[in-house]
Each structure stands twice: as C-alpha cells, then as structure tokens.
C-alpha cells in the first residue's frame, strides 16, 4: 500500500504527518523550528529528522515505505534558496519523489475547495501567495511585512497601533482608549512613560498584544476600529496584488484566510472582503479549518500524480484525532 508524508516547517515548530492512500492518518511527529533563518540549515535538518522518525514510529513504517512527500518550508522565500533546501531534504534518506514549497502554500492546498486560489496569512506576521488550477503558475508578495509595507498580521497591527498612540501623545492625532489599555498592559506610569519605554525597548509590546486592539475596538473606540479596518484593507490589497499577477480577476476562486488574526471576525474580514470583491467579484473568502500539514500531505500525493479527493481530505480530518490533536499553527 502507498503511504504519503507531509511536513509543515514553521518558525516555532515542525509538524510531520503520514497517511495511507485513503487519507487515514497513521503517524504524527512534532519537533522544533524548521526555519533556516532562525536555526540554520543544520537545525532545519534536525527538526525534519526528528519529526520524520516520530511519524514513522507511530505509523510502524520505514523510510522506504513512503511513496510521496510534500514539504511546506518557512524561510524558503526565493529561488536562490532552492538548492540548499533540496540538499537538506535529500539528507532525510527518503527515496520517494517530493515537492517543497513556501510554508504558506500548504494552507492554500488544504483550505481551498479545489486546492488552488489565494491564501492570505495573518498570524504573527503576514504573507500571501497564490496558485493557478494546474499548480504551474505562482503569484506572491515578498512576505517581509513592515519592511516591505505588506499586509497586516499581528506584528504589523501593533507596529501601526504604537504609531497611532504616539500621535495621541504628541497631539498629532486624537485621544484613544488604546493609550490607557497599553499603559496597563506594559505596566507604564502614564502615556509619556509608555512611549519612552517602548522606544527604548524597556516595554516590549509585540504581536501578542493584538487581541487588546480588537477588544478596544469592540468596546467602541473609533481609533482602534480604524486600525482593524486598515488591517483588513491591507490584507485585501495584498491579495489583490497576487490576483493581478495570476490574472484571476474574472474567475471564481477561494481566498483562504490562515492565521490567528482572523479570529477577530467581521471587523477585520469584512473590509478585506470588500477590498477584494471590488477587484475580483468571484473571490470567495474561506477560513482554514485544518492544520497546514494536511496540505503538505496532499502535495506529497501530487508528487506522484495522485489527486486528493474530497473523501481523502475528509478521512484525514476525521482520523487525525485518533493519533494526535494538532493545533492550528499561526504563522
């Protein structure tokens, strides 16, 4: 019987999953960061080896039993990194054909009904990629957030929030309830002390503070509401850029929303939907409800020209809890 492997390499953890030809989950592994930008290619290999060995043990299989493999690799951003990435994968000792892609793509493959379209990631950071129906053409942004003025994950939202709170302190902008909330959050004495401590790195205020912005917005603060609206529009514009690249404007396709920011609900999603629909009215926004490693497994099947049917996808989702509960990884 053929068996398929998928690995989702993230900045904090790596998930590895093995399924049989019906999609039944057989083995799972969880290991450390697989992003070479954080741990180097040696660390990437170590995380992949550990995850692979755990999954093989759980499935009762050996490396030679694997028929196809798919890898979503955080930090694999440019073609110039392909050779080094391939070298790491080759050291795993698998003999099966494989596909490796940037780690945003498995979320698209897993979340889109037909496995193609656009994926917008808004977790700790932000990213966006797209694939055409045949998986031959890819559209993308750089994935470097604030540096390149792209999108709005939690990091970008807080970056902008602190600018706006700074405007309130200098009276360049209106007062906002975000100021008092952030003073309390950071343990600052007052607004001036908050700005001082933030700019001198005494008060670390990062992506983890994003839920505070959503809370204050829900309580009616206009400045916080505008920030969430801004984030939705930014993510929509990022999607539109990829839609233009792939010429999807007149097609019906899925836009997969991946990442914890989308837990913020309508106040973030609706401006994103409106931004996209003005340009691509056939786009349908859907939440990613399964772990991205599912998409990596589907790519493993695609490596040997096997299409993952709806029944295979359902079998994966239904059977994974029998071997391990996998939380959604927030990029």
Question: Top keywords for this entry?
Answer:
10 strands; alpha/beta; 5-stranded mixed beta sheet; single chain; 331 residues
Walkthrough of the structure:
The chain has 331 residues and is α/β, with parallel strands linked by helices. It has twelve helices and ten strands. A five-stranded mixed sheet has the order 3-2-1-4-5. It has a five-stranded mixed sheet with strand order 8-7-6-9-10, with helices on both faces. Strand 1 and strand 2 form a beta hairpin. Helix 8 crosses helix 9 and helix 9 runs parallel beside helix 10. The protein is globular and about 70 Å long. The mean pLDDT is 94.
Q: Can you lay out the helices and strands and say which pair or pack?
A:
Elements: E1 3-9, E2 14-20, E3 25-31, H1 36-59, E4 66-73, H2 82-90, E5 98-102, H3 105-111, E6 117-122, E7 126-131, E8 138-140, H4 145-148, H5 154-170, H6 177-186, H7 191-199, H8 210-218, H9 222-246, E9 253-258, H10 266-277, E10 283-287, H11 293-302, H12 310-319
Helix pairs in contact: 1-2, 3-11, 5-9, 8-9, 9-10
């Amino acid at each position: 019987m053929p068996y398929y492997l998928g690995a989702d390499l993230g900045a904090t953890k790596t998930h590895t999953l093995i399924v049989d030809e019906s999609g039944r989950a057989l083995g799972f592994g969880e290991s450390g960061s697989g992003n070479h930008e954080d741990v180097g290619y040696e660390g990437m290999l170590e995380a992949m080896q550990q995850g692979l060995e755990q999954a093989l043990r759980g499935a009762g299989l050996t490396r030679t039993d694997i028929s196809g493999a798919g890898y979503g690799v955080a930090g694999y951003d440019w073609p110039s990194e392909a050779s080094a990435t391939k070298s790491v994968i080759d050291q795993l000792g698998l003999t099966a054909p494989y596909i490796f892609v940037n780690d945003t793509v498995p979320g698209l493959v897993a979340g889109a009904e037909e496995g193609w379209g656009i994926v917008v990631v808004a977790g700790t950071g932000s990213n966006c990629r797209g694939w055409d129906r045949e998986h031959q053409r890819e559209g993308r942004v750089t994935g470097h957030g604030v540096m390149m003025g792209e999108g709005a994950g939690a990091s970008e939202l807080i970056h902008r929030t602190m600018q706006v709170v700074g405007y309130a302190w200098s009276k360049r902008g209106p007062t906002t309830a975000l100021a008092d909330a952030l003073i309390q959050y950071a343990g600052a004495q007052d607004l001036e002390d908050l700005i001082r401590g933030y700019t001198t790195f005494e008060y670390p205020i990062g992506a983890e503070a994003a839920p505070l912005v959503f809370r204050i917005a829900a309580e009616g603060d206009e400045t916080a509401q505008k920030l969430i609206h801004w984030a939705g529009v930014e993510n929509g514009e990022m999607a539109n850029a990829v839609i233009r690249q792939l010429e999807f404007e007149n097609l019906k396709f899925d836009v997969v929303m991946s990442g914890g920011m989308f837990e913020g609900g309508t106040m973030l999603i609706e401006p994103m939907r409106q931004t996209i629909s003005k340009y691509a009215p056939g786009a349908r926004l859907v939440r990613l409800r399964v772990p991205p490693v599912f998409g990596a497994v589907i790519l493993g099947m695609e490596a040997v020209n096997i299409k993952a049917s709806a029944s295979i996808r359902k079998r994966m989702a239904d059977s994974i809890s029998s071997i391990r509960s996998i939380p959604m990884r927030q990029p």
